[in-house]
Amino acid sequence: MHESTTLLVEVGALLLLLGLLGRLSRRVGVSPIPLYLLAGLAFGHGGLLPLNASEEFFAVGAEIGVILLLVMLGLEYSANELVGNLRSAAPAGLIDAVFNALPGFAFALLLGWGWVAAVVLAGVTWVSSSGVIAKVLGDLGRVGNRETPVILSVLVIEDLAMALYLPLVTALLAGVGLVKGGIALAVAVLTVVVVLAVAIRYGHLISAALSAKDPEALLLGVLGLTLLVAGVAAKLQVSAAVGAFLVGIALSGPVAHHATQLLSPLRDLFAAVFFVFFGLVTDPLDMPPVLLPALLLAVVTMGTKLATGWLAARRAGIAEPGRWRAGFALTPRGEFSIVIAGLAVAAAYPVEPRLAALATAYVLITVVTGPMLARLPDLPWFKRWLRRRSAARPPVPVGAAD
User: TM segments (predicted)?
Assistant: First the structure.
């Protein structure tokens, strides 16, 4: 009885604090993710006031949070849209992978962390934060801008790449070796292809089985289906997060629309729990030694992400101001970076212990500075600089390509 009472007190107090932090973040116009991470650091191992009774609750809640983040992301796209974006944005996705995964991989090797940690850190630096970027685009009124589809295409390619990357990393972190890791990747590829094919051909039947007219039944049905598929995917070493993402893709029409509305509050709750849990299991005393490396890595990879967006927008025929907006908008890292680092923390295979602290510091830096950088192209001095650049550029001959 005493333990359950302590659990209620700890969980209630921390959730109340998260609510206040979320309100504060929206007042000052920044993402709440860094504040949630800081709250976890303050109340975790080595923090100011460690919470012990509620750690298991937050561990389970964190896993549900990842699943809900991914199913909600999948609900934003239909299977046909996903396949179409994959075809049109494949070159931009390749540039994105080379420019942003390789710096993380090389950085880990330079630190002497080994190739498994290098593969993990490559994923941390590769993927932008869909949640933070979507919020920034909405806050800045850029949802209808010409460069926004380019940004979304890059994010979709990253999401698809994670469907293949996560099971491979999960296998590597389990220490199963290259052969079994290759088998896990093959199973993941086959699973993704099969689910996409089923979603394209029979997605309407899945949606028809879940009535959009009964909110309670829809909520229970979608949540139950998501957790079931996520659990089966985890059993197949495909990753629960990928299974949840594919469920979201399979749903369409009014069911997907209403499910998004019903699941949004749950997603916000458990996503906050997820970020807090990552902070809880990271010792703040481990962070000062990695702050300088994290800052260096953030500067390098925000530059490479800027180049990614700029080149992708240029390829799509977007004018120079839109290229800069696309590049700066892609710089924040968040959900997936923490998910990947979280896999390393929970792995049975021994991974570099400083990786979690480095990832936390890295995400904090990019998620705070990224939204600020996204505002630069709207500032008067930046617009004047672009006009001077345009005036100084020699005229393009008639008939020449951009």
Answer: 6-24, 33-51, 57-77, 115-138, 150-176, 182-205, 217-234, 240-257, 269-285, 291-313, 334-351, 357-374
